[in-house]
Design brief:
globular, 7-stranded mixed sheet, Aminopeptidase, alpha+beta
Length: 144
């Protein structure tokens, strides 16, 4: 597997992965396109045969960054692709001398929370009943 910066030609696949992973909470093609063209950083992880297995997007701010999205196709889950994406953006943040990385995760997403905890994130706040289904949003951060 390899992680690399996304290019314009990857957007169609990123949009498809977004839909597969987030369903009715997925960002639209226009939202992703707009985000891609602004100050966000997108990376994709590819399988050895070149298939895009997942992507991650990061909003770069002054001194910190926010992980906006991370998504891995269902057939590639639990194979290290999400971890590789997360480690790549942590490295990117360190290379840019950022101080903090933060994110929001649905409280019921146990697999994602385990991944974030394993990479040094800790819960710093909650947004009660934030999601359509009433689940809380957990705000997590990590010093770099």
């Amino acid at each position: 597997m390899r992680v690399e910066c996304a290019v314009e030609g990857d957007l169609k696949e990123i949009v498809a992965i977004e839909g597969e992973c987030f369903g009715d909470e997925a960002w639209t093609k226009e939202m992703i396109q707009s985000d891609f063209n602004q100050r966000s950083l997108y990376k994709v992880v590819r399988t050895d045969d070149g298939d895009i297995a997942g992507y991650i997007s990061l909003l770069l701010l002054e001194g910190e960054a926010e992980l906006l999205r991370i998504a891995v196709k269902k057939r590639y889950r639990k194979k290290g692709f999400g971890k590789a994406l997360l480690e790549a953006v942590i490295e990117e943040c360190n290379d840019r001398a950022l101080e903090k990385l933060y994110l929001e995760v649905k409280d019921t997403n146990e697999q994602a929370k385990r991944l974030y905890l394993s990479e040094g994130f800790c819960e710093v706040a909650r947004r009660k009943a934030y999601y359509k289904d009433g689940a809380d949003a957990v705000i997590m951060s990590r010093l770099l």
